[in-house]
Amino acid sequence: MPVKAIGDAQPLLPRANIAVAEIVRQSILVGDIKPGERIKEEDLAEALGVSRTPVREALLVLAAERLVDLPRNRGARATVRTLEEDELATIYDIRALLEAYGAGRVAERIDDELVSELEDSCERLAATATGDVAALVDENTRFHRLISDAADSERFSFLVGTLLQVPFAYKVASWADESFHRMALNGHLKVVRALRARDREAATQAMRQHLEEVSAYARHQQRTEAST
Fold it and tell me: What local confidence, expressed as pLDDT, does residue 69 receive?
């Protein structure tokens, strides 16, 4: 793992394991540390100005989040997880179930301010060029987090947030495709339309359909990549 991927870090304060976990988590999610890449505890500790103990604790947290694989042999290096083909599609299937419920819940309590925020998000998504994958991924994540947070359940928001933590590498091909960009935008617009109407059933259905379409695309993409 290249130390430069972590950036110019300053020595971390107490509870350094939490800070280390967040730094490495974000480095994985944005693609600075890639799937299959090994993480050397000693290099990470030196780069962040901490001992190896908080680094080891942080990697245990990330292993529990299924972002890294941590061998039982303490001398072996942690590795950023590579998602199997079916696993990525399963993530979207679970999201469809959870977020459909969340959208229906939000429909009964949404206010005009949140409707406006979601409409602004759709406008930004529409205005972002297909080639700007990082901006598209960020806006998509913002949209889904706005809804999950508005469900007014910390446990629900945590579960959805965990599922949204798919490394950038697995999102690039989708968001670089103009047809996927259009499909995702259309799905967001349908969800917002149902939420604006405070229609629980329509919001549930719109979110489920949106994520089922994304899941179908992911499966198609995996089959295409596997055959090349």
Answer: 92
Count up the domains in the chain and report the number. 2
| pLDDT at residue 170, rounded to an integer | 85
Of 37-51, 70-84, 139-153, 165-179, the range with the lowest mean pLDDT is: 70-84
If you compute the radius of gyration of the chain from its CA atoms, what whole number of angstroms results? 19
Are 43 and 114 found together in one domain? no
For range 33-61, the mean pLDDT: 91
Domain boundary among 63, 80, 97: 80
End-to-end CA distance of the chain: 28
Scanning the structure block, which residue is given the tokens 């706005």? 146
Tokens of 64: 């529990």
Q: Above 90 in pLDDT, residue 87?
A: no
- With b for 16 or more beta-carbon neighbours within 10 A and e for fewer, the 129-163 pattern comes to eeeebeebbebbbebbeebbbbbeeeebbebbeeb
pLDDT band at 198 (very low <50, low <70, confident <90, very high): very high
The one-letter amino acid code at 138 reads: D
Contacts (Cβ under 8 Å, ≥6 apart) of 18: 58
The three-state secondary structure class of 152 is coil
- The CATH number linked to 54 is 1.10.10.10
Q: Is 124:76 a contact under the CB 8 Å cutoff?
A: no
Show the domain range for 170: 85-227
Query: What's the gap between Cα 167 and its chain centre?
Result: 7
